[in-house]
Model the fold of this input.
Amino acid sequence: MSVNAQRTEGSGTSQLLDQIRSTGYNKDVTFALARVVSIDPLVIRLAGESFDLEEDDIIVARSLRERVITAHITDISTESAGSHSHSGDSGGSTSTNGSHTHAISGNATVTLPSPLEVDAKVIVAIHEISAADKEFYVIDMPGEAPEGGGE
Done:
């Protein structure tokens, strides 16, 4: 089996789209770039189109939505030098001028914000069910290549 190792030109997004087109054409699914017009409610506009897709018209990948996760934090220590104070749950407090550490370990609930913002570009997969019926999936955002070109 031979592998085509030819490099493509253009941005990371255009390279991704070229690879998808060359490796697995599916006439029912196409990809397009879009721009976020509004966040609340979410509205996007496909590149080259004059109409907007509203939140009810699109399915957004979980990684692009605000979401809450539980993370386990293990052995994070902070070193706090200088004058500062601590207050306790029972209303008392202490002050110190010395250096000491604070250790944190346990589960934490973290809210990951949506990376979407007005005028952000997004990649949309368009599934054509029939000539009159399409599904629009916001699947990712174009990003910069990793340091060193990702090679």
About this structure: Residues 12-67+113-145 form a domain with the OB fold (Dihydrolipoamide Acetyltransferase, E2P) fold (CATH 2.40.50.140). The first strand starts at residue 29 and ends at 38.
